[in-house]
Amino acid sequence: MLISKPPDIPPSEITDEAVYNGRRRFLAAASAATAGLFLNRVSAADLPPDLPGLPPARPSPFSTHERKTPYRDITNYNNFYEFATDKYSPATLAASLTTRPWTVTVDGAVRRPGTYGIEELIRMNPLEDRIYRHRCVEGWSMVIPWVGFPLNRLIRQVEPTGNARFVKFVTLYDPREMPGQRSDILHWPYVEGLRIDEAMHPLTILAVGLYGRVLPNQDGAPVRLVVPWKYGFKSIKSIVRISFVEKQPLTTWVRAVPSEYGFYSNVNPRDDHTLWSQARERRIGDFFKRPTLLFNGYGEQVAQMYRGMDLDKYF
Ligand SMILES: Nc1nc2c(c(=O)[nH]1)N[C@H]1C(S)=C(S)[C@@H](COP(=O)(O)O)O[C@H]1N2
Ligand SMILES: [Mo]
Known about the structure:
With 315 residues, the chain is of the alpha+beta class. The protein has a single domain (11-306), classed as Oxidoreductase, molybdopterin-binding domain (Sulfite Oxidase, Chain A, domain 2). The chain contains eight helices and 13 strands. The strands form two sheets. Strands 1, 4, 5, 8, 9, 10, 12 and 13 form an eight-stranded mixed β-sheet that branches. The longest helix has 24 residues, at 12-35. It is globular and about 40 Å long. Bound molecules: the ligand Nc1nc2c(c(=O)[nH]1)N[C@H]1C(S)=C(S)[C@@H](COP(=O)(O)O)O[C@H]1N2 and molybdenum atom.
């Protein structure tokens, strides 16, 4: 993510990515050479370490069957500005975040507002394995096996009123725990939002795990949003508040750079307002880029929500 527009776009992110991919390929080649493995085979280091498990999750028909991105990539290449603006240090810096106990407050235009402990949220909602494509606006993508539950389950429990047109999500604000919040690189706390029908959509989940284990901190522990047809920045991490509101919330990246980031931010290969062309993407671990798909390939499920809307205007 970039805060400023040209001319000071130092493509540091892009360079980062190139360096990262180069390093990764080198490591993969080296380990394949020594162990005689095929590049794409899952090795022990690709699987989660001994984090606490979660209740059993059932597979979801919404999962993609594409090859999953290895665990070590999903957990070592993160955007989490509360910890750092580079993608490598959240893996270590986020380790100290206290994620238990943790509560999520649900309030606003609902009949049954409440505050839920994280364990309670997990207990109340049957978990599912959801293997989703994840597309960052910076041009990289992954395939991530989340564990979570549909957000619409929680929404039904709190009974939104007719005034609930949008849902606003807020990340923890605690500069002692989140060192990035001591700088004003973004306006804190991180805020995201969805239209109520997007929030109710069966593809929209709250994720509490990854690869069958609890979420590592750098991926948004203990609970984060996942909206697979939108750019990654919509999928807000480490949520403490979910509010039902009448007006479209002012979200963090729209507030920072309104010309670049829109409220909707549906993945769209034709996007031309962004700094980067969105036409293609690099799947982490792949050498060649691949074409980006409208709605990140989830158009069949979500396109009807945007019928009649000018997607260039509402980007
Ligand atoms: N609170 C918070 N949520 C966030 C971010 C962030 O910096 N802070 N980064 C976003 C961006 S740009 C992306 S691409 C995804 C990255 O999720 P991942 O690290 O689990 O892949 O998280 C999103 N959610
Ligand atoms: Mo992103």
